[in-house]
Write a structure and sequence with these properties.
This protein is of the alpha+beta class and 361 residues long. The chain has one domain: Cathepsin B, Chain A (Alpha-Beta Complex), CATH 3.90.70. The protein has ten helices and 21 strands. The strands form six sheets. Strands 5, 11, 15, 16, 17, 18, 19 and 21 form an eight-stranded mixed β-sheet that branches. Strands 4-3-10-7 form a four-stranded antiparallel β-sheet, with helices on one face. The protein has a three-stranded mixed β-sheet with strand order 6-14-20. 38% of the residues are buried. It binds zinc ion. The site of zinc ion has 8 residues, from loops.
Length: 361
């Protein structure tokens, strides 16, 4: 065979789509759901936990996920029953991937969802009497406030630093102190006391523009590192959910590194393709993205257990960190988490969904 024909054949083969994974067929435009379902399927411990739990528990969403996962292991699969179970009536309306990720975890068995569960201690110290309050809350997702830094590139590390940086709540943000019996300035801060097995990070691209008094999507570039070091733990990136488009609507896809083949794949509804160019090529320790929205990091090293004084445990199961951040967005505020005073401690999935959907439509 001559050289030209070999090259022609090679080019044809390169364009031929072969993937080790399969796509999802949906009843409508539910890319936000398809992306997170594929992330959950491609998370080894979650897939295994669902397989273990789904046969014995009918009160959770495990059995539906189990059926979907076993179909996906063989071929393409339909999301119709999951869409129904999640109460998605209008399947053509754009919704938020992060909210549906949390909604699925809320409906999953504890054994499966605990893989994504982390814990934060929020500390408040009254500046006047020095009384300290600690509240412990758990989370599924850490929401980072994305900033347009102009010529500089916003990095995930910058966002994490801002998230955990202490600040003083003063003037209109004074907090009520039980000892002083009135509102006082307070030092507030937060620290991670339980590192999740899978660390999920939300890049809050949906924001409120105070100057123009409208909701916007931030398209700025973000440097996403392959490896993150947090509280003496090392995490490695294995999934990104991307959002293309504006706050009014758009499209979600996911790029996920397989625990089975070690390769990266691009999941786009019913199409799955192997990523030909490695995300982290020679010498690249981070990937620059205008579309990265949700990031999933897998813990690759053990970290020492941490204990801390806790005098109050918040009993709600929904991430108050997220609820707080989103509510601020929806109301046009820009307050950074953490806050000591949680305004709404309910596991109100519906309420939170409304906030972000308002941004999206
Ligand atoms: Zn006080």
């Amino acid at each position: 065979m001559n050289h030209d024909r070999v090259e022609l054949l090679r080019a044809k083969l390169d364009n031929f789509t072969i993937s080790d994974y399969h796509g999802l067929k949906s009843p409508g435009l539910t890319c936000y759901l398809n992306s997170v379902l594929q992330v959950l399927f491609m998370t080894e411990d979650f897939r295994e936990a669902i397989k273990r739990c789904c046969s014995k528990d009918s009160t959770t969403i495990d059995s539906l996920l189990g059926k979907l996962f076993s179909e996906l292991e063989r071929s393409w699969a339909r999301t119709h029953s999951i869409t129904r179970n999640l109460g998605i009536a209008d399947v053509c309306r754009q919704r938020d991937a992060a909210e549906y990720f949390e909604k699925i975890l809320c409906l999953s068995s504890v054994e499966a969802s605990k893989i994504f569960k982390g814990e934060l201690n929020h500390k408040t110290t009254c500046v006047k009497c020095k009384t300290k309050n600690v509240s412990r809350n758990f989370f599924w997702i850490l929401p980072l406030t994305v900033e347009n830094l102009g010529r500089q590139t916003y990095t995930v590390e910058t966002g994490l630093k801002a998230f955990f940086k202490g600040e003083t709540s003063c003037s209109v943000n004074k907090l009520y102190c039980d000892c002083c019996n009135k509102k006082q300035d307070a030092d507030v801060g937060c620290e991670m006391t339980l590192n999740p097995q899978i660390l999920s990070i939300l890049l809050k691209r949906f924001s409120f523009d105070h100057n123009h008094r409208c909701h916007v999507k931030l398209h700025c570039k973000v440097d996403v590192p392959q490896t993150l070091h947090m509280e003496q733990c090392t995490y490695e990136l294995y999934a990104l959910v991307n959002h293309f488009g504006s706050h009014r609507g758009g499209h979600y896809t996911a790029e996920i590194k397989s625990f089975e083949t070690g390769e990266w794949y691009h999941f786009n509804d019913d199409i799955v393709e192997r990523v030909k160019q490695p995300l982290f090529g020679a010498g690249n320790t981070s990937v620059r993205s205008h579309t990265a929205y949700l990031l999933m990091y897998r813990k690759v090293s053990r970290c020492p257990e941490k204990t801390d004084e806790v005098n109050q445990e918040a009993p709600f199961i929904y991430s108050d960190v997220k609820a707080e951040g989103r509510r601020d967005e929806a109301e046009g505020g820009e307050a950074l988490v953490p806050h000591h005073q949680v305004k709404d401690e309910h596991c109100s999935i519906g309420g939170n969904l409304m906030c972000l959907n308002a941004d999206m439509v």
